[in-house]
């Protein structure tokens, strides 16, 4: 029964040995898990870390140098560290909330506990739309990579469609436990690609885009002077780089031992923050205002082809994982409480493949309708990423701690209460102002370049 099962210690902490039957497990979300169906509780500590890193490290890192160009190196540093701090706290709250409420699978379940049916439906709708937009940005970045590698070998719309087919094929794997190998491969792929670009811009001394300028020196800024619109767009892009937060619910729910969740989280956040700061600083320092978005195009045509060729598996994996998250959310929502959720029945397979197909088609429409990488990333970060990563987690902490803390208030409780209220208020401000800025930029970008129009066949890898 929901809420009656402990957080996972007795629910399959240890995987069965090869050739050994999987014992029946009772899970507060998935119900009875047997060897006759998929094992939804088979993600270990290292696997969780890989999934967490890949959920965030992929599309986001490609926009960080552009953030530094807008804000300057010092404010850019502050922005990245601030967002990293808030999202690390938010992700930590997810782990503690899951241990206290084992029946929680996704953010909509948390919304139901806090705000009832209205909270469930609002947060459920928002998280589904959020993952669709993330998947759309993944398809778009993959099409950019295919264009770069093939020197625009065919219509961009075709590349987006090819990316969608590839994502659907791999994203239809049913459990995260079987997808963790793709996460490791994806992390390695993107890391090597951005490292290649970083080394190349350092060795070149100047970006190829500035080759016609005599006695060129990098025009990097320690402190930028962006307009309000540009500044909020940069903040929103940084949020997107860390906004895998809703996926952490799913990862925690499929861990064999959720008590090790925090260990995986801290390793993930520390790793990607170090990468974001180092990669963003070096690429921007050498390229200045000539930095590209996505950043893999900053070292010229040859390195761009090499880097995208290396990064393509990682870009596809980023798309696959968010496609899986959104499909799994719908799948669990539809079949929860029925035997078909964990049994290999026709209804099980039809529902699962139908969910993945629906998300794929929806994401394809988004990628084709807003084909401007930087603007799409900032829009997702501001409108959906902020709302999915800030406000609900502040409310979750207050839900679990407000009543007991008021009875015996102490300094720690007062500080944490103020911190979570600040997250809620600050997140709301960023969401509203960042969305406005992103919409303004999308309109301006669409008018400025004919090649960035919706459903265009034009090469989108020359940003």
TrEMBL record:
It comes from the Eukaryota. It is found in: Membrane. The chain crosses the membrane at residues 73-94, 122-144, 150-171, 183-203, 231-253, 265-286, 306-331, 352-373, 379-399, 419-444. Pfam families: Aa_trans. The keyword Cell cycle does not apply. Residues 1-23 are annotated as: Disordered. InterPro entries: AA_transpt_TM. It is a multi-pass membrane protein. Residues 45-439 form the Amino acid transporter transmembrane domain. Keywords: Membrane, Transmembrane, Transmembrane helix. Signal peptide: none annotated. One of its GO terms (cellular component) is membrane. GO terms for molecular function: L-amino acid transmembrane transporter activity. Belongs to the amino acid/polyamine transporter 2 family. This is Amino acid transporter transmembrane domain-containing protein. It comes from Penicillium salamii.
């Amino acid at each position: 029964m929901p809420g009656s099962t402990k957080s996972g210690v007795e629910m399959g902490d240890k995987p069965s040995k090869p050739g050994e039957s999987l014992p029946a497990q009772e899970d507060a979300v998935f119900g009875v898990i047997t060897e006759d169906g998929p094992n939804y509780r088979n993600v270990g500590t290292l696997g969780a870390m890989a999934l967490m890193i890949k959920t965030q490290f992929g599309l986001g890192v490609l926009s960080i140098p552009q953030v530094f160009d807008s804000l300057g190196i010092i404010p850019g540093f502050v922005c990245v560290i601030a967002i990293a701090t808030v999202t690390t706290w938010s992700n930590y709250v997810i782990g503690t909330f899951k241990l206290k409420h084992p029946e929680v699978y996704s953010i909509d379940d948390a919304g139901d506990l806090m705000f009832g049916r209205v909270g469930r439906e609002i947060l459920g709708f928002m998280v589904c739309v959020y993952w669709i937009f993330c998947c759309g940005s993944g398809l778009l970045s993959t099409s950019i990579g295919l264009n770069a590698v093939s020197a625009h070998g065919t219509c961009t719309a075709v590349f987006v469609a090819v990316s969608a087919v590839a994502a659907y094929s791999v994203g239809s794997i049913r459990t995260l436990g079987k997808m963790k190998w793709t996460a490791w491969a994806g992390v390695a792929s993107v890391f090597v690609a951005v490292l290649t670009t970083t080394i190349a811009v350092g060795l070149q001394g100047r970006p190829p885009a500035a080759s016609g300028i005599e006695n060129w020196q990098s025009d990097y800024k320690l402190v930028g002077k962006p307009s309000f619109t540009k500044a909020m767009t940069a903040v929103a892009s940084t949020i997107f780089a860390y906004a895998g937060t809703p996926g952490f619910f799913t990862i925690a729910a499929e861990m064999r031992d959720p008590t090790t969740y925090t260990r995986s989280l801290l390793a993930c956040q520390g790793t990607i923050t170090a990468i974001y700061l180092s990669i963003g600083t070096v690429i921007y320092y050498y390229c200045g205002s000539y930095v590209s978005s996505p950043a893999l195009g900053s070292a010229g045509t040859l390195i761009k082809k090499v880097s995208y060729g290396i990064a393509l598996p990682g870009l596809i994996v980023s798309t696959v994982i968010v496609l899986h998250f959104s499909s799994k959310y719908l799948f669990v929502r539809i079949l929860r409480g029925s035997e078909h959720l964990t049994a290999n029945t026709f209804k099980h397979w039809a529902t699962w493949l139908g969910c993945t197909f629906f998300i794929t088609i929806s994401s394809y429409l988004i990628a084709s309708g807003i084909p401007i990488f930087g603007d799409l990333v900032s829009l997702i970060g501001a409108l959906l990423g902020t709302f999915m990563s800030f406000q609900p987690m502040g409310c979750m902490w207050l839900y679990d701690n407000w009543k007991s803390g008021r009875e015996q208030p102490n300094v720690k409780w007062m500080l944490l209460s103020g911190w979570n209220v600040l997250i809620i208020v600050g997140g709301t401000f960023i969401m509203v102002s960042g969305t406005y800025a992103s919409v303004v930029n999308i309109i301006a970008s669409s008018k400025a370049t004919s090649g960035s129009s919706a459903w265009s066949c034009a090469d989108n890898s020359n940003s």
